[in-house]
Design brief:
- The model has no long low-confidence stretch (mean pLDDT about 95).
- The termini are far apart.
- About 40% of the residues lie in helices and about 20% in strands.
- The chain has a six-stranded parallel beta sheet, with helices on both faces. Strands 7-8-9 form a three-stranded antiparallel beta sheet, covered by helices on one side.
- The radius of gyration is 19 Å and the shape is globular.
- The chain folds into two domains: about 170 residues, 3-Layer(aba) Sandwich (Rossmann fold), CATH 3.40.50; about 90 residues, Pantoate--beta-alanine Ligase, Chain: A,domain 2, CATH 3.30.1300.
- The chain is of the alpha/beta class.
- Bound molecules: adenosine monophosphate.
- The site of adenosine monophosphate has 17 residues, from helix 2 and strand 5.
Length: about 280
């Protein structure tokens, strides 16, 4: 496994690499969810490139960019165990040589101005722009993203489609702890007591999924009940939502493919999660 930090070196190395090439973009501090993405990439790609880059443009001014955990050596060990070929770990200057406020931005407004986009203005423009840059830098045939960040996955699928990026996006199901909590680098901001309460987020959206599977379509009351249960458990709720999985529009009785999504602050951590339901 090679670590590459310079763009010119990456491009030169990739020219010689066997195809198909699979890209796994991450911000590092890897856990079993990220490793699953790399493992899936290994199954289908002759060359696997995992990127580790904490992208400043997707963090708001009061968010955790400075304290986001950076653990490159440990991350490399985890990736070596599943057989990544190249770890691309560039500096901020390497990715944004003229500064972070590039005049060109990628925005997927209709999908970004909702859910997490309301609480994190500009976040998805930062994500969409850096992911587009990574697509152009690495030029993979396959790119792997987690379903855990459903809105992000939806935005990336849409931008690849709208901008004719010649690759296939593969969504990987969320990897969870035994008690249901979705693995996330931000879980380590939870105290022991908060960590014990955190699975309530998953239980809440699961309860809504079971309601939908049983035929309920009283979306507002399902949402209101979920939100009040989370508040009772000490979460500061950003949203509980039932959406069309692909368009992220509010669910209607005609919706077939639902996504139930929630975001809430618990102590020092902002947690997100989602589950799906397909009507029969
Ligand atoms: P991040 O480092 O948080 O930007 O995440 C990098 C990639 O890993 C994204 O595509 C995430 O959706 C994915 N990911 C993060 N957590 C999980 C998880 N628990 N299960 C599956 N994929 C995940």
């Amino acid at each position: 496994m090679m670590r590459i930090e310079q763009l010119v070196e990456l491009r030169a190395t990739l020219r010689e690499c066997p195809r198909p090439l699979g890209l796994v973009p991450t911000m590092g501090n890897l856990h079993a969810g990220h490793v699953e993405l790399a493992r899936r990439a290994r199954e289908t790609s002759a060359t696997v490139v995992t990127t580790i880059f904490v992208n400043p443009t997707q963090f708001g001014p009061n968010e955790d960019f400075d304290r986001y955990p950076r653990t490159l050596e440990r991350d490399e060990e985890a990736l070596a165990s599943v057989g990544t070929d190249i770890v691309f770990a560039p500096s901020v200057d390497e990715v944004y040589p003229d500064g972070r406020d590039t005049p060109t931005r990628v925005s997927v407004d209709a999908l970004a101005d909702t859910l997490c986009g309301l609480d994190r203005p500009g976040h998805f423009d930062g994500v969409a722009t850096v992911v587009t840059k990574l697509f152009n830098i690495v030029q993979p045939e396959l790119a792997f993203f987690g379903e855990k960040d459903w809105q992000q996955l939806t935005i990336i699928r849409r931008l690849a489609y709208d901008l004719d990026v010649p690759l296939e996006i593969i969504g990987v199901p969320t990897v969870r702890a035994d008690d249901g909590l979705a693995l996330s680098s931000r879980n380590q901001y939870l105290s022991e007591e908060e960590r014990a309460r955190a699975p309530k987020l998953y239980q809440t959206i699961e309860a809504i999924r079971i309601g939908l599977a049983a035929g309920r379509r009283d979306f507002d009351s399902l949402i209101a009940r979920g939100a009040s249960e989370l508040a009772d458990a000490g979460f500061d709720v950003d949203y509980v939502a039932i959406r069309d999985a692909r368009t992220l529009a509010e669910a209607s009785p005609e919706t077939h493919e639902f996504r139930i999504l929630a975001a809430a602050q618990l102590g020092g951590a902002r947690l997100i999660d989602n589950v799906g339901h397909r009507a029969g």
